[in-house]
Structure formats: structure tokens, C-alpha cells
Amino acid sequence: MPGRYDQDLRFGSANPKAAFWLVKFLEDVGYDGPRAFDAHAYRTEDYDGVKDFARGCIRTYLILKDKAAQWNADPEIKSLLADIAEANDKAQPTGPFEKGRAQALLAREFDRTALAAKGLQYERLDQLTIDILLGVR
Description:
The protein contains six helices and no strands. By secondary structure, it is mainly alpha-helical.
């Protein structure tokens, strides 16, 4: 589950991809609140170790923030996202919650057979994401 991790681990160390998507979301929506981490250093750490832990959480966040900007600017990812939107009949993201949008989504009929027949290239998108996270792109 994104945003959830063993509290004895530094932010992003247990599941870097989930942490990436969380940071990307916060940055993409322009979240301007504090970046806080419900975590703590290993219980065996001394005061300096706790400070290293806090610095590590923020450092990881900032690295993932840069990776999110790289992901957003990547031409191949942009092209792939456009292809995915095209394959979904140019469907737009649902946007912020509104009762009218929720009702429209509930009323919409989906052709499961047609949806299953489309290749949406999510595997390619996932690999490009991993390439960015691992620094090979």
C-alpha cells in the first residue's frame, strides 16, 4: 500500500516505487503542506543516528521529487501516456471529487471484453519508471 511501510525503516527504503508514486502525486498536485514521516530510526541508534535517519528521509524525498520531474518530462513516457489515453478513447483523469463526476462514473457502462482486448502498454510504462528510479534513463 503506497505510503505505508515498516516504521523502523527510512522513508522509501522498503518500497522505493511506492514511495516514488506518493512523492510524484504530492508534487504533481502542488501539495504545499509539511513533508513529515511517521517513522523512527532503529531503536539501537544514538542521537546522531536519529539525525542521520531524519536527513535520510528528507534526502530520499528530494531524490524522488527529482525523479518525478524527470518522469513527467520524459518524451517517451509522454508519448506512451498519450497512446494510453488514445486507447482509452481519450479518457481524461477523473479529476477532483465532485458528486456529478461520481454519478457519471457510476452510470457509465463498460464493455469488459473490449477493455480486455486493448493492450495498454502498462508494462512498458512500468519499465520506464524503473529505469528512471534506477538511474539508467
